[in-house]
Write a structure and sequence with these properties.
A 7-stranded mixed beta sheet has the order 2-8-7-6-5-3-4, with helices on both faces. Strands 9-10-13-12 form a 4-stranded antiparallel beta sheet. By secondary structure, it is an alpha/beta fold. The protein is built from 12 helices and 13 strands. The protein is globular and about 60 Å long. Helix 8 links the parallel strand 5 and strand 6. 47% of the residues are buried. Helix 5 packs across helix 9 and helix 11 crosses helix 12. The protein binds pyridoxal-5'-phosphate. The site of pyridoxal-5'-phosphate (PLP) has 13 residues, from helix 5.
Length: 410
């Protein structure tokens, strides 16, 4: 007879409980349960990749062979690495002497790998990574996954180098910047980025510069890569993505320039996780990068029109007495932070607002809390994305948003 045994069900590691929960899947489920919802939440654009991408992929498939079907080079196929090096030198003015390039499955993966490569977890003192507020949530999650501590620094939407300096401890390993910024849409001025980069050099820290939105600049402030600062190669990590500008979020294509000293550690990470970047998508990446900023320009111009539409709609609502305002000049990416003011706003959290707007008004936006902005002295904050909606749907979504906000504040 079989003896009954005591069953101990295995579960996930406890340390994962300390990692932020991803907000996008939660909101996506809410939207799925509320048919007809218009989304100002999605961090994507609505255009498809250049046609040359499909042509290049079809040609690569037709050619087939070991170049496509077998494992390839760990850092990326040499032709793509050459294309990336030329782009980084010409467009970002990076001096690649002393840097190494690595292709990843999206720039989130690149960030994760870098933090894994530089953070010392317990049993020693955990490393710290400084993130100016508001942060991009996946950065915090990656830092936590590496067993390191995210140190969140307030100081306005544009990071303040002095406040960042004050947050440095002997355990700090890196400072992260995101420009153009998710969630604020702010383009961080070059002198501020340069000051942060020099601060990193002075304290022996890495500057991790997330430039996923590098082509998305709609105002006077140009995009500037910290890695172009002379002498910065030994401590600067530049992260880039094809997800946004080329409408290739689903293709999972990113790349980074890293100090050469990090390469042996990154080799271990890349070899364990990816072995080599998917080879078919590397053909797609070459075609997209060859199409380049000239291909993106008319699409970005269309987006600039929608940005203006959003700003005009906020101004109209303000003029009619709705206590809303845009936090900071959203001159980049396709985001803006909307702050609710007034006495009634004080009792609402951004998270509550986010959920009620979907359920009661069929419009989705992300809460400020998702980016570390707690509704405190000011009222709650929402991140609005104008990347995915055409002009007519954007108008409808903004109308629902402002009617919803008005009702919730009443
Ligand atoms: C600042 C920032 N970095 C990286 C990513 C992710 O890029 P990828 O799709 O290349 O992983 C996003 C996506 O929203 C982002 O906002």
């Amino acid at each position: 007879m079989i003896q009954p045994i005591a069953v101990h069900t295995p579960g996930p590691a406890r340390r994962l409980q300390a990692v932020l929960s991803p907000v996008i899947p939660e909101l996506a489920a809410l939207v799925r349960d509320t048919p007809g919802t218009l989304s100002l939440a999605q961090g994507m654009v609505d255009w498809d990749p250049p046609e040359s991408v499909a042509v290049a992929v079809a040609a690569a498939l037709a050619a087939g062979g070991p170049e496509l079907h077998r494992y390839g080079a760990l850092q990326g196929d040499p032709q793509l690495l050459e294309t990336i090096a030329a782009k980084l030198a010409a467009h970002n003015r990076l001096e690649l002497e002393g840097s190494a390039l690595l292709v990843t499955a999206g720039s989130n993966m690149a960030f994760h790998a870098v933090v894994q490569a530089i953070a010392e977890g317990p049993p020693g003192e955990p490393s710290e990574v400084i993130l100016p507020l508001p942060y991009y949530f996946n950065h915090v999650m990656a830092v936590q996954l590496a067993g390191a501590v995210p140190v969140l620094v307030e100081g306005g939407v544009i990071p303040d180098p002095e406040r960042l300096a004050a947050a440095i401890t002997p355990r700090t390993r890196a400072i992260v910047t995101v420009s153009p910024n998710n969630p604020s849409g702010v383009v961080i001025p070059a002198p501020v980025l340069a000051a942060i980069n020099r601060l990193c050099a002075l304290h022996g820290l890495f500057h991790i510069s997330d430039e996923a939105y590098e082509l998305f600049v709609h105002g006077r402030e140009p995009h500037w890569s910290a890695g172009s600062l002379p002498g910065s190669a030994a401590h600067t990590v530049s992260l880039h993505s094809l997800s946004k500008a080329y409408g290739m979020a689903g293709w999972r294509l990113g790349y980074m320039a890293v100090p050469a000293a990090l390469l042996p550690a990154l080799h271990k990470l890349q070899d364990t996780v990816l072995i080599c970047p998917p080879r078919l998508t590397q053909h797609a990446a070459r075609a997209a990068l060859a199409a380049g900023p000239a291909w993106c320009a008319p699409r970005l111009a269309g987006l600039a029109g929608r940005r203006q539409q959003l700003l005009d709609a906020v101004a109209t609502e303000q003029a009619q007495g709705l206590p809303v305002r845009v936090l900071a000049e959203p001159d980049g990416a396709f985001y803006a932070l909307l702050q609710l003011d007034g006495a009634a706003a004080g009792s609402l959290s951004g998270d509550t607002l986010m959920r009620r707007l979907v359920r009661e008004h069929r419009v989705a936006a992300l809460s400020g809390e998702s980016f570390g902005l707690e509704a405190g002295c000011g009222g709650p904050v929402l991140r609005l994305s104008y990347g995915m909606l055409g002009a007519a749907d954007l108008a409808k979504a903004l109308d629902r948003l402002f009617r919803g906000v008005g009702a919730l504040l009443a």
